[in-house]
Each structure stands twice: as C-alpha cells, then as structure tokens.
C-alpha cells in the first residue's frame, strides 16, 4: 500500500491496511536536527531525505494563511487595535496571491500525490488563532468582551476568504486532511468558555466546513494542551478530529476513544519519553496500542521532537514506530460503524468499539440485563444487522449497567 492509502484508510477506520501510517506531523526543532548532524546525520540532508533516512512516511503541509501579503506597506501597522486599524490592514489580508501560491505548491506536488507517495495536510487559519495574531494575546482575549463587533468582522472576512480558497484549490488538488490552526487550549483546558466558542467561532466553522466536506476531506483542528473538554464543542460545529494530543497536558487518548468512538486523532505519543531509551519508548507504544488498533487514530509525536533526543534514540523510536504500526494493523479491533448502507447489513457499529473500550463481551451484557436479551442480539447489534428500536434500547440499557455509563442510541448505532 502507499503512504496515502494507509493514511486515508486509517482516517476512515479501514481494517484492510497493512500498517498504520508513520508520520511526523510537525517538523523537528532546528536544535534537534543540529544535534543529530553532530551525531552522524548527513550534514546536507533535506526534509524529504531525512524522512527516508528514518523510514517515515511523507506528510507535506500546504499553507493557506490569511495574511498580511508581501505588498503591505511598512506604513501600515500589522497590529490591529480597533476598527480603523483593521480597515487599514484589511486590503492586504485575504490576498489572491496567497491562494495562487498554495495552488502553485499543490501543482508541484500533484504527481507524487496522485501516485500516493505523499500525504498532504492543508493548513488553514482558525477563528481563534487568526484574530489573536492580529490583535495580540491580551487584546484578543479582552476583545471578546470589549470589541465583539471587531472579532465578528474579522472572522466573517476570514470565513469568506477560506471558502474562496478551498473552492479554488480543491479542484486542482484535494488534500488528505485539513487542519485548522487554533491553539485555544492549554494544560488546564480551554482558553475560552463554551459560550464564547459558540458565539465567536462555531458560526464561522459551520459556514466553512460544509464547503470542505463536500469534497470528502476530513477536517481536524490543531490545538495544544488539554482539549478534552472541548471535543463536544468541536463535534457540534462539524470538526471531526484533533491534534497533537499532548500527554504532558494530561490528554488521555484512551478516554477520548472510549467517550467519542468516531472522533479522529493525530499525535498523542509523549515526546518526553523519547530521551529515556528503548524501554520507556516501548512502554509508551504499549499505552497507545489499543487505540492504534481501534482505527481513526494516526500516532505521531505529540509535538516537535525536542533536542534532548539523541540520534540513536530517535532511530530506536523509528524502529519501534514501525513495529507497533504493524502490530496495530495486524490486530485491529472491530471497526466503528462508518459508511453504513441501506438494508439489513449496516456494517460494524460504534457499539462494538464502546464495548471493547470497557472490556465487555456479549456475555457481560446478557448476564446483567433484566430484559431478556440474548447473545445473538448483542452479536447482531455489534455487526450491524438491523434491529428494532426496542431491541436497540434493550442492548443500550444492558450496556449502561455493565459499563456504568449512559450512552445515547446515536452513540451506539448508525441507524
């Protein structure tokens, strides 16, 4: 299989892939590469060649940032403080030249992409990230209360630009994923409330995401720190996944998979263990392996590999990475129900993944149920044989008792 086939297969919970993709979603630190070159990495090696050196798949980023453009005069401030300063800078934001540059980059990559040699991620500015870059961190946070009209104006303009950019680029080259840059969480959770997210971000995501999804492209968001509490907010406005899932911020990908069985994930490998040797790195892969087997998860370092990691330790990491990506594919568990078709056989259902996450088997549900369900009912429920609403409810009730957690029918069945 090609790297692109593996990547798309993983995002689509495809059990037929030969191994999981092996990607670095973010480039290594310059200090890390400098160290490796002192320890034996070829001095003149480029990015592509370095990925080949370590046996990694090539994930290429095409950027589509909103501005300012190169022709912005020095007399125009790049910092927005009010409506007037935004109006002065606005003609140099959202430039056609930005879209043209992205199309040029895509055209240069097209043959390799068509052959499946590379995976392409499209970077788009998000509706928290972009205004923060214009206003600055402190002014941006105050603006939610002091300058709400300005934030709405900026995000409205950004949404229009993003739709225009997508409609221009995707007919030329359809990326394998879109990642919205946001960084709106930290180690204690979100940097804004759900109410502010709903007012200032969600409406613009809901305008933009349908344009992306009509091309069949998965939409994820890049936000550091602990994103866990935000996942329902993201899902409600159409975002399908998140990265980088930083372990040091307390992110637990097993919990995310258990609570949100179809939510896509990229990252999650604790970069802080990579300097500690093979045993520590293997233990970290063992921690991730059950989620790797569940589908919908692309393992990767949870941010850039730090300079504390020696060349030898990174080589060990790459070898273990390949080993566990193979193990994950060979031992993949029941696929979350996606792409169900009309009729009586709807394919594996989310119920199967939820039961696996709780360590439950059909016998456990049958034994605890007071509504006389059978092993055959549970088996049919997991496999996607169409059940009546009454039987679905019985299975759900038994699951709630066995797992100690309530689930809606929509979380367990695709029909």
What does this structure look like?
By secondary structure, the protein is an alpha/beta fold. The chain folds into 2 domains: 3-330, TIM Barrel; 350-412, 434 Repressor (Amino-terminal Domain) (Orthogonal Bundle), CATH 1.10.260. 49% of the residues lie in helices and 10% in strands. It has a 7-stranded parallel β-sheet with strand order 1-2-3-6-7-8-9. A two-stranded antiparallel ribbon has the order 4-5. The chain starts with a helix and ends with a helix. Mean pLDDT is 92; it is low at 334-343.
CATH topology of the largest domain: TIM Barrel
CATH class of the largest domain: Alpha Beta
Structural domains: how many: 2
Rg from Cα: 23 Å
Quote the average pLDDT: 92
Instruction: Kindly report the spatial arrangement of strands forming the biggest sheet.
Output: 1-2-3-6-7-8-9
Q: In DSSP terms, counting alpha (H) and pi (I) runs of 4 or more, how many helices? A: 19
Judging from the principal axes of the Cα atoms, what is the shape? globular
Q: How many angstroms separate the termini?
A: 32 Å
Q: What low-confidence regions span 5 or more consecutive residues with pLDDT below 50?
A: 334-343
Task: Tell me the total number of β-strands.
Answer: 9
SSE topology string = HHHEHHEHHHEEEHHEHEHEHEHHHHHH
Q: Helix- and strand-based class?
A: alpha/beta
Largest sheet: 7 strands, parallel
Quick recap:
This protein is of the alpha/beta class and 415 residues long. 49% of the residues lie in helices and 10% in strands.
Descriptors:
415 residues; 434 Repressor (Amino-terminal Domain); single chain; alpha/beta; two-stranded antiparallel sheet
